Each structure stands twice: as C-alpha cells, then as structure tokens.
Amino acid sequence: MTLVLQLAVAGLAIGSVYALIAIGVVLIYKCSGVVNFAQGAYAMVGAYVSYALLRAGLHPVLAIIGCMVVLGGLGSLTERLVLRPMLKAPLVAVMMVTLGLLIVARAACLIIWGPDQIAFPKVFPEGAISAAGIFVTYNYIAAGILALVLSFGFLAMYQFTRIGLQQRCAADNTRAALAIGIHVSNQVSIAWAMSAALAGLAGTLLATLNGLSLDLAGIGMIAFPVIVVGGLSSLFGALVAGLLLGLLQSFTDGLLSPVLEDFLREHTSIYSVGALQQVVPYALLVLMLLVRPQGLFGRRGTERV
Amino acid sequence: MNTRHLVIAVAVALLMGALSLAFGRFGAYMVNAVAIAGIGALSLNLLIGYGGQISFAQGALLGVGAYTAGNISNAGGDGLLAILGAGVMGAIISALIGIPALRLRGLYFAIATLAAQAILEYLFKILDPITNGVSGLVIRPTTILGIPMTSDRSLVVPSLVILVIVWVAVSRLMRIDLGRSFLVLRESEIVAKGMGIDVAHAKILAFFASGFIAGLAGALAGFANRLASPEAFTLDLSADYIAMIIIGGLGTWTGPLIGAAFVVLLPEAIQRVGEAAGLSDILSPLRELAFGLLIILFLIFEPRGLTALLSRLKPRSLAVPAPGAVPATGESLPP
C-alpha cells in the first residue's frame, strides 16, 4: 500500500509537469490550428536559460521569472517569423516546420552547452518529508505544487480575465473576433508566448528533478498522448490527462513492469520489458482514438479536421 | 506517356550507376544511400503526397523491412527473397497502421502514426529473439541470385534496379483508376464517396502499396549498413523522409528523388564546407543546425518544393501553371 502511495505522489508530480507542457500545445492548437512539435524544444531551452541565469547568480525566483520572459519572447518570435508566413501551407508542411524548429533548437543547445548531462543548481531546499510510510523530497513536492498552481492559475486567467476572454474569442471564431475589434494575429502571438513560457517553466522543473540534458526535448512528445486523451481543444482536459498519464507511467514503472518481466522471463526468451512506461501512453493514445476520438473532455465533431 | 517515364527513370539510374563507378567506394556509398532514400521517399510520397494520409511512422516501417530482410538473409535465404519478404512484412505492418485511418482523418491520424512509430521503436528494443534488442541485429553480407553482395559497389546494382521498378510502378499506378482514387481521397473523402469510390478499400491499398515499397527500402538499407538497430529507425528518420518529399515537392513525380538526393547529400556538403572552414570541432551540431534551418527556410519560401522552383526556371511555355498551397497533382504528371 505504501508503494502505491509513493508511486502516486511521484506520478502526480511528473504528471503536473506534463500538464503544463500539454496546456501549451492545446493553447497553440486552439488559437492557430498548429500542432506544435517544438514544445519540447521550448522546455529544453527554458531549462538551459534558467541554468544560465542561476549560474549568473540570480535568485531562483528571479531566474524562473526571467526564463519565462525569455521563452515568451522566443515563442512570439517563432510565431511571427516562422508560422505566420505559413498560414496557407498544407498541414504536413506546418507540422514539419515545427519539427525543423526542434532540430534547430537541439543543435543550438548542443553547440552552446555541449552534449553532457549537467547537474542543475539547487532551486528548492534539500530534504524530504516522510509521512504514512512514504518518503518524498521537497524538490518533488515543490515542483508538483508549482506546476499545479500555475496550471490552475493559467486556466483561471483564460476563463476570467479580459485577455483570456479575447483569447477564447479569437480561438472560437476568427471572423467574429475581428469584427468586434480583437487583433487576432496579436492574440495568436500572445498564445505562443504564453505557451512557450509555460513550457520553459516545465522544462526548468523537470531539470531540477532529473538533471539538465538535451533529452529534455523529448518531453514534448509526451504532450501528444496527453492532449488526445484529454481532448485536443480542452485546456482542462490537458490538465486532467497530464495528471492521469503521470500516474499511469508511475504505476507501470513500479507495479506492472516487474510483474510482466517475471512472466515473460518464465515463458519466453524476452528477459526485459525495457522502458515500458514510455510506450504505455502511446498505447492509450491509440485506444482512445479508436474508442473516443474526441477525448475525455473534447466536443465531438467540431475539432475533427 | 509511360515510355517517357521509363526512359527518364532508366537514364537517371544509368547516370547514378556511372557516378558510382567514377567516384570510387565513397561514390558508390553515396549513390546507394541516395537510391535507397529515393525508394523510401517514393513510398512516403505515395501515401502523403498522393493519398493525403500524413504518416510519421516511415522510419519504423523501414526498420521493419531491415529486420525482416536481415533475419531471412541471416537464416540463409537469398537476398532477393529477403528483400521481397521485407516488402510483404512492410505492407502488412503499414496496413495495420492504416486501419485507424478508416475512422480518423488529417491531424488525428497523423498523431496515431506518431504512436505507431513509438510503439514499433519500443518493439525493436524488446523483441530480443528477432531484433537482438538494443545492440541491434548484425546482418551478414548477403547473396542476391548467387552473386555475393560484399561492397557498396555491388549493392548499387540491386538498389538502382529496384529504384527504377518502383519509380515506374508508382507512375503507372497513378494513371489507373486506383491511383486516381487516391487523389480524390486526398482532396475530399466526401467527394470520393459521392463518386462511388470505396474509401476504406482505397485507403488500405494505399497503405499496403506504400508499406511494401518502404519494406524494400528498409531491406536495402539493412544490407548497406549490415546492421539493424533501434537507433537507426527513430522519429528523426521519419522526419528526414517527410523533409525529402516536401523539399522535393509533395505529390510530384520527380520530387521524391530530388528531395532524397538533397537531404542525403546536404549534410555531406555541409561537412566538406565546415572542414574547409576549419570548424571540425563543432561540425556535427553545426550540420544539424544548418539542416534544420534549411528545412524551415524552404518551407517558408518555397512550400511547393524544388520541383516548383525548377519548373519556374524553365521557359514559360513549359512551366507548371496555377500556384497553390497544395500542388495540383494532375498538373504535375505529364499528360
């Protein structure tokens, strides 16, 4: 039982970081119809920027805020320079251009910071809580809570503030938004900026947990199972599905993999299931698409392209 | 005008053969790489460019081909049998990937193929008895029809022969009813239904044909590298192939070949320039950076690809008319 609890806490912490990434992807998709493969690149670049700011001696809070500002600028810059000229391009070309961005970002970070894993400076105080037989470091708690608070804060902003209203309007109906005087292309830029900033934060949090390396870019791909399970156009769905997949991965790693491995060793010549937790989200994705393509919180019909 | 296509295809293959002879072992290696990439790009162009089904699983499909061919060949089967077996296996797996396409369209299907890529990569790693796990399957030099394939130079021959056959076969396919129905599918499934096209049937056949060709390319790649390992068939490879067909020109006849040559030769060219400029320390990331930037610039400034760029350089009377976001394939196939 304690094992289950321990796994649940770890899963929720990672899941809330997934949620941050996935919210960004959904935000961009809602506003501009672009599926952004470069979200992982923003996370990776964000982590490196935070690292550089921390190394420069900035207070962690300032460093994280600085990272989000830099990434926000980078996000709206990408939209202006790369995505806006491609408004009328076919879907596959738009997907490909975001993959190109990912390649460029990875190469740039490789040139600047090198291929080795870097130990991330301490952001949160060291130590751990042990309660009810489980053991959680402050780092996990802080990362999970920060990601969750920001996710909910972002959803509240999207729902209740003036800028959120404009965002929703621009995403729902471009022409109507233009007609009532909303500058839609500015809103799209803002959406990219916010989404990149959230990803930058998520990347930084992940780096505090697992260390800093180019592999952080891979986190962008986990966003796809998350957004399909949650519903492509639902921000709240992305949040719930992020937590769900975090839990699923954690339980797969801790409970399912060992059992499955024992079984396979006994009955076949396969002796390792490898990183099963990394592939389980994709299996769920396929299942979801076949059973309920609109996802848990999506609306049927409207978002099927 | 299939004779014209046949003549052009054979001429290109002969030219490539001559190049491989002229530039020694390295030349043969590059020509072989371009030919294999060309076959893979023809396969993906059939699916995306003509059929309109976006797939990110091409890299994994090539892997299926390489593993199948490697196993057949290592077990003592003839190379030709291995290549054909890889084609059949590729076709079967591709059709399986295509089944969700019967219910899903566009973006949703593209994401489903992303999942297929991830799942296949995972299977390459864990199915030890067939794939030899993360360390990869070593493929011993094969013999094709009794002739040992020991070097890149000998492998160039089957690669070029298969390239010509596939190239002509695809152009033939696009002139019969089935190929035409792919084009209608790409534009609108509803229209296709209205015209009495069996949408499910046509889609599965598109996946089948494309997967068969991808299997062939994978088998040849396996023989060329003498190794099939999970790292060789990742999403990055899928991205390379999508880059090829977009850079060449989606849904065009010559585009896949031009794109394949471009994407295969570009890193080599950058390597040479970098070495000359004395940047060998950071060459490999620099190559990646230049490759990514070029893809981005290409997509922004010439989304219809090199084929469109070249046809603009031709005299006006021959130029392809009607600029549009998606190239009208009817136009780009010569009448």
Explain this structure.
The complex is a heterodimer of chains A (305) and B (335). With 305 residues, chain A is an all-alpha fold. Helix content of chain A is 73%, strand content 3%. Chain A contains 11 helices and 2 strands. In chain A, strands 1-2 form a two-stranded antiparallel sheet. In chain A, strand 1 (128-131) and strand 2 (134-137) form a beta hairpin. In chain A, helix 1 crosses helix 9. Chain B has a domain at 2-234. In chain B, the strands form 2 sheets. In chain B, strands 1-4 form a two-stranded antiparallel ribbon. A two-stranded antiparallel ribbon of chain B has the order 2-3. The longest helix of chain B is centred in the N-terminal third of the chain and has 27 residues, at 24-50. Chain B starts with a helix and ends with a helix. Chains A and B meet through helix 4, helix 9 and helix 11 of A and helix 5, helix 11 and helix 13 of B.
Would you summarize the structure shown here?
The complex is a heterodimer of chains A (305) and B (335). With 305 residues, chain A is an all-alpha fold.
